[in-house]
Design goal:
By secondary structure, this protein is of the alpha/beta class. About 35% of the residues lie in helices and about 15% in strands. The strands form five sheets. It has an eight-stranded mixed sheet. A four-stranded antiparallel sheet has the order 16-18-21-19. The structure holds pyridoxal-5'-phosphate. It comes from Mesorhizobium hungaricum.
Length: about 500
């Protein structure tokens, strides 16, 4: 806004001030001295109090007390401005330069909106499916939405069976259980992932062995997997399963991984929690292992607020998963159990949300890919940003736009950029901290890609930028501009 339009001096009358307030929409005037040094703000309330104290409209603003208003200095962050406004219960703050002259007026409503990493994005039809569940009183786990959601997802991805569950974590846990993973067993898992990939191994009393990433896709290194399998064979510690994670919407390099696991006769569980909608050589990510899992948590590419799916070509696995996820009730008229079950089924209401979300999956994928492309294009002149690669065999959903920063410069680092963006109320996050660096998994074996672990480097230098498919153009532009300012500071 043009601040000269709300500038006023002490020689102005109360009438002038009221007339000016009436003409401008800000609700605040900037009172400066003759040498243009900012003194204080003037509001309707200030004038009202003078009038109540007996002043009249032809008196001048020299009656105003000379209290100093709170101001911001140039170089302020949004976060500082917002905290200062909250602390002083004001909605405006003048920014003053070194000479005390106002150069800008910051309005709360223009700066208080954060840009978040990835938020739920509802489509048009979710509410209809949910309403139908209410109308028919199917407020239960199981029901027509659950059946339909499973069928629709399986058809869309070209997989024979899908089982809707309460979370992606529950799906991984069930998959391990279906492969009879138990105490004394080893399970290999990608190290660069979210803890939910690995935790279920420990739920089953088995021991995780962590496998490094390769630089082309950031996912499991076939080279490191091969060494781990060879060492496993030599030491009689071959794994009961390999959990292959597909990170940030991109499939792992499945051909060599499947070839290795076939050679060593180890089943694959694909943790495709982040890669629903992605493909590897044209085939759905999540459809390469004996079982695959997806997550519909709130921040994932589509969401049921909380939920997951187990997919498999093998009907026996799907049947058993349905059985175990509903408390393992034997087919008897009375309640009879011959094994331990879980309460892992998805509710019919949430499956209704899932059905609506599934209809817009392709749209969400192309929106996220466009966000990634925009970052990449608009920031292409900053040569020390390296974008997460997309190998020729991959069609990534770009669930999160991820990049690494080349080391160099004085304080250029992923953590410094994340902090800088936080000051602008823009949420960026580090790359997942690899599991072999986590205190809780520090005793687990780890196999690196080469001499230097790739995942350590990605963690040290990487970050994820806001990527929600419902980001506005302004939010995207604001994020890009903030990164530019950081780069050129
Ligand atoms: C989100 C996520 C999970 C867990 O899914 P939930 O539905 O949250 O239980 C597992 N693995 C990865 C890689 C994830 O990103």
């Amino acid at each position: 806004m043009d601040i000269s339009k709300i500038a006023i001096g002490r020689d102005a009358t109360l009438h002038d001030a009221l007339a000016l307030l009436d003409r401008t929409a800000t609700g605040v005037l900037l009172l400066s001295s003759a040498d243009e040094r900012f003194e204080r703000t003037v509001t309707d309330g200030d004038i009202r109090r003078l009038l109540l104290d007996g002043a009249n409209l032809n008196d001048t603003l020299s009656l105003l007390s000379d209290r100093q208003s709170v101001t911001l200095q140039l170089g302020y962050t949004r976060r500082e401005a917002l905290l200062l406004m909250q602390a002083n219960v004001v909605n405006h703050l003048p920014v003053v330069d070194d000479n005390g002259k106002v150069v800008e007026l910051v309005e709360r409503s223009k700066i208080d909106q954060p840009v978040l990493l990835s938020t739920p994005h509802m489509g048009e039809s979710e509410i209809e499916f949910v309403t139908e569940a209410f109308r028919t009183n199917w407020i239960a786990p199981l029901g027509p939405n659950v059946d339909a959601f499973e069928i629709e997802l399986a058809e869309k991805l070209g997989i024979a069976n899908a089982v809707a569950l309460s979370s992606g974590t529950a799906a991984i846990h069930l998959a391990l259980r279906l492969l009879d993973v138990g105490p004394g067993d080893y399970v290999f898992c990608s190290t660069l992932t979210f803890a939910a990939s690995v935790n279920p191994i420990v739920y089953q009393g088995a021991e995780p062995v962590l496998i490094d990433s390769e630089p082309e896709s950031w996912n499991m290194s076939p080279q490191a997997l091969e060494r781990a399998l060879e060492v496993g064979r030599r030491e009689g510690k071959l794994p009961k399963a390999v959990i292959v994670v597909s990170l940030y919407g991109q499939s792992a390099d499945m051909d060599p991984i499947v070839e290795l696991c076939d050679r060593f006769d180890v089943p694959i569980i694909e943790d495709a929690a982040e890669s629903l909608g992605a493909t590897y050589k044209g085939k759905a990510s999540g459809s390469f292992g004996r079982m695959g899992i997806y997550s519909f948590n709130g921040n994932k590419i589509i969401t049921t607020s909380s939920g997951g799916m187990l997919v498999t070509e093998e009907k026996a696995f799907a049947d058993r998963a349905r059985f175990l996820s509903t408390q393992a009730r034997d087919p008897a008229p009375h309640y009879q159990h011959s094994t331990i079950g879980y309460n892992y089924r998805m509710s019919n209401i949430l499956a209704g949300v899932g059905r609506g979300q599934l209809k817009v999956l392709e749209q969400r994928v192309s929106e996220r890919r466009r966000i990634y492309e925009t970052y990449r294009k608009e920031l292409s002149d900053i040569e020390w940003i390296e974008w997460m690669p997309e190998p020729a065999w991959s069609y990534s959903t770009r669930w999160l736009s991820a990049c690494t920063l080349q080391q160099g410069g004085s304080n250029r680092s992923a953590s410094a950029l994340i902090q800088y963006l936080a000051g602008e109320l823009i949420e960026a996050r580090p790359i997942w901290k690899p599991m072999h660096l986590q205190p809780v998994f520090s005793d687990c074996s780890f196999f690196a890609h080469g001499n230097q672990p790739i995942s350590d480097r990605l963690f040290d230098t990487g970050l994820c930028l806001p990527s929600g498919s419902n980001m506005s153009e302004q939010q995207l532009e604001r994020t890009i501009n903030a990164i530019r300012r950081y780069a050129h500071a």
